Amino acid sequence: xxxxxxxxxxxxxxxxxxxxxxxxxxxxxxxxxxxxxxxxxxxxxxxxxxxxxxxxxxxxxxxxxxxxxxxxxxxxxxxxxxxxxxxxxxxxxxxxxxxxxxxxxxxxxxxxxxxxxxxxxxxxxxxxxxxxxxxxxxxxxxxxxxxxxxxxxxxxxxxxxxxxxxxxxxxxxxxxxxxxxxxxxxxxxxxxxxxxxxxxxxxxxxxxxxxxxxxxxxxxxxxxxxxxxxxxxxxxxxxxxxxxxxxxxxxxxxxxxxxxxxxxxxxxxxxxxxxxxxxxxxxxxxxxxxxxxxxxxxxxxxxxxxxxxxxxxxxxxxxxxxxxxxxx
Length: 328
Known about the structure:
Blueprint: H1 3-26, E1 38-40, E2 51-55, E3 66-70, H2 77-84, H3 86-93, E4 96-101, H4 117-120, H5 125-141, E5 148-153, H6 155-166, E6 173-177, H7 184-188, H8 191-196, H9 203-213, E7 223-229, H10 238-251, E8 259-263, E9 266-272, E10 278-285, E11 292-294, E12 310-312, H11 317-324
Parallel strand pairs: 3-4, 3-5, 5-6, 6-7, 7-10, 11-12
Antiparallel strand pairs: 1-2, 2-4, 8-9, 9-10
Helix pairs in contact: 9-10
């Protein structure tokens, strides 16, 4: 074999070595690489036996907001975080996301147990687990404790209302998507009556349920934004009416909207406090069934990916929530 033959034989090995070196360089810690969803273990006593996932954009500065995003039934943390658009917005606007995940050992359909008394009370069950996740996240990323928000779809929306009621001091705002008011299953006597019919309560009675969840707490209370499809046959629109009654009562404002207009063609209302600050906001998504509103695309107001219970209605709920919370 000549020297030329030897060099030719070695060339593939040299190419392989170069490719290996390139991959090693790209994967070296500290290099620019896309952030990914990570599971966090040991975030507390975790009495609700949930799993904690989180998303932290690369290079996130200290003092940034935190969003807790709770998936719906049959979903998981990764699918909901991506499909809803929250991870996309986290990269765009610079905040971190906590994504609790239910386990089938707790609920066969992977629903958060918004209807179980032992999971919706302060210091107990799933509510306590989510609160512990917030504390862990704030400590790990040096997040802004005054700018923590909670949102979720369906059962995740119900659990968002739970967190706002049981831990109001931890959250500046909440977003309930196709969800239910706090204490609804107990008021209705059944989660299914609550979902399909609603509970017979006055706004004051609804508000009393929230106030009882955190005895002695005098505020400030989280603001609330609700998204509800008018054609939702799983969680009926009456639940948005009840949520509005509950949280306008908690904030001590009347139930006459200060703003009534349309956003992306859908009826939109805002209820303000005496200082003119929005405390309750509603989006009634005409013709939408049960799911999270998304608006896939690259436009400035677009986010999310269409899929099961992720409904392309030309309005991205995550974007609207993020704007209401001053995230972007």
